[in-house]
What we know:
alpha+beta; CATH 3.30.1330.10; Phosphoribosyl-aminoimidazole Synthetase, Chain A, domain 2; six-stranded mixed β-sheet; four-stranded mixed β-sheet; 34% helix; globular; purine biosynthesis; phosphoribosylformylglycinamidine cyclo-ligase activity; PurM-like_N_sf; ATP binding; phosphoribosylamine-glycine ligase activity
Amino acid sequence: MTSYAAAGVDIDAGERAVELMKSKVARSRRPEVVDDASGFAGLFDASALLAYRRPLLTTSTDGVGTKVMLAQKLGRHDTIGIDLVGMVVDDLVVCGAEPLFMTDYIACGKVVPERIAEIVGGVAEGCRLAGAALIGGETAEHPGAMDADEYDLAGAATGVVEADAMLGRDRVREGDVVLALASSGVHSNGYSLVRHIIKLAGLSLEQEVPEFGRTLGEELLEPTRIYSLDCLELARSVEVHAYAHITGGGLEGNLSRSLPPTLDALLDRSSWTPPAVFEVLARHGGVAQADMDRTFNLGVGMAAVVPADAVDPALALLRERNLPAWVLGEVVAGTGRARYR
């Protein structure tokens, strides 16, 4: 006779992981969350949507890419979930949507309850920072398909925006100003190139880097900044025409998606100095500027397009919220491209 446990799946460990994560998930709770005793599904009271004239539900899904491999190598699992939330909810907020709730999915070679609880704790903390509720998720054990210490995670979120308040390219006008909202570092894009540079240059994740004041691994695991609450407050306080979440494809690739076909965003590279991590990666990897531009956020995690008369109050509000921001460029006649002057 054989068993599921003999095949490598430990149901008891999965149940213990659920118990360990419960208190952490509770910190992300919103008033609209409804308890489901069965635990098979997450419930969210949608009656609040009755206050909207024409509510549009929005959804987004993503993962964190190969950054998980660095987390596994360093044995640090408590922040990778924050990265997941950032990648998902900050896509939602680009159109002005408030993130309401999120679910996650973790696949692993072996369920180690404490490790799973750390990962989900990070997701719950990210949801708290985003103002969203973590209302459900799944952990799957895949022995044979993944090594015991391997895992990957993905998530999906749902948000809502009033139809006539939706932001985007249709609102952008010539003469608008592009604001940069600072990133916290590399965020969660470009880690295949990061890992290639580490291998190519023979770097150690444990080595202290003077430019960082901490180890290379600590710098690279810095969690993704979550912008949703800042962007929502900005849009409530001043006129905002569009946002762009700067992920894979860099500033030019992502900001272009928020421009109409008759306008360009002319960006001033001299308006900021990218964080030291990008210079260190470029130097050790011999990476050309064009490849750095296409791969990384280079210190700008979100861009906002606002009318010229909204610049000063917008920057003042972001300063009050401890989010570094500056004038990055302007909107001019063109062909729908973001480009450097």
